[in-house]
Amino acid sequence: MAKKYRIVFDRDTCIGALACNAVAPDYWTLADDGKVDLKGAKKRDDGKWELVIDEKDHVLNTEAAESCPVYAIVVEEFEE
Ligand code: SF4
Question: Which domains does the chain have, with CATH numbers?
């Protein structure tokens, strides 16, 4: 079975450094307030944004997470 990954984005922590957008612009899009939005993500009860991704997109988004200076992005594996 294919591994599943999810991106968890703490938008409150984001300072709009845009490093994630430079790495993965198809996922991290510029927003009007100078921060980014995670395209297609849903807001969770804890206020963070979550998007499930396939294994093929996990490397790119892990690079985006590592580029973020304030660690607002986490990519984690999970089981269904
Ligand atoms: S790299 Fe981090 S701080 Fe910069 S826009 Fe992306 S999530 Fe926000």
Answer: 4-78 (3.30.70.20)
CA of 78 to the centre of ligand 1 (A): 23
Residue 3: HSE in the Cβ half-sphere, 13 Å Cα cutoff? 11
Nearest Cα neighbor of 49 from 61, 59, 63 is 61
* Tens-digit pLDDT profile for residues 36-55: 999 999 999 999 999 999 99
1 has a pLDDT exceeding 90: no
What global pTM score does this model have? 0.94
